[in-house]
Amino acid sequence: MRAAFLALMVAQSLPAAVYSEQPKTSDSGGRTAVQVALTHSLADLKHALQRTVAMESMPAKPGLSLVASSILSTAPGDGVGRRDDDAVSRRRLRPHIVALIALLELYAEQPTDELAANIASHLVTLADSPEAKPLVDAVRGYYGHANVWVDVSENLLDTAVEGSIDRWDPIDTIILGTPVAGKGKVEAVRTLEIQPGANAAVLKIVVDGVINGNTVGRRGAAEIISHTLTRFRTEKSLVLSPTGLTLLPTVCEARTQTIESSVTAKKPGLRGRILERVARRRSQELRSAADDESSQHARGRLLKAVDDEAETLVKRINRVAVLPMLLIGYATGGGQIEIYSERRVLRIGAIVGPLGAP
Q1: Nearest alpha carbon to residue 51 among 85, 11, 86
Q2: What are phi and psi of 185, to 5 degrees?
Q3: For the chain, what is the mean pLDDT?
């Protein structure tokens, strides 16, 4: 802090050095190219020092007065006309900067809504000025944290999602042109993963499991009896942000493998045996293609099931998280929001009012 303070004081006197004797080539304001480059570099350095000192001086240390004096001090221009413009700009900024410094001192001692509103008003005016930007950034950065919090126990969300799945589902589909019917036993584990971020949280419903299918396919007089195993993983992500809840498309990976199959024919005698032999050979040749198509059908059924079950979680999140945000006025995107997880608690913080918390 002390080093930056001293550097800013030194920087106050540096701009005059750029007017030393240089080659004769000059711009319309009478300055050489080297002088123009030096002026810009020194201005950037001065702004960086102003920002550092201002941030270190918050909320109301003496360094803020130095930053204010530095902003309002004479700066090199592009000639007489530019220097006149600078003087007009400084006269316009002066009452707002002086008032802002005084208000910050009062607010640090005893924060009130009225003082916060006055500070915010001056910040809006000063934000249009590049010269005042370091001071504006420091104040907004310091008072840029959530001042209202809503805590949501992750256990509330878990109970709507987590658990095991053990059930029989009907199978009625068509594989490679053959009608297939039967049932499949679904055994899976459903979990909820919460990934908090700076301005949003992703709630991911993950389902890992297998489906043991027992089906019968009928094509003409032949019946194909199959036992299949489908391994799958589905993910449904919901994004909780200041604008509410957004559902992302469900992602599913599923792979079906035929464990065993047999073929029978409903024709007697030699004709039936020939039919069985042909159907068995054909079934073996098409097994890989049948498994691929079965995988696609399984993905479709799983996607629908996860989307349907996600509605329960959406209703609960709307009640315990989105509604509180609506009540504090941040579902319209009118402010900032912070979301993070600590000790199984989803914390939703918002800035209510013109200034946030330090």
Answers
A1: 11
A2: -95, 120
A3: 76
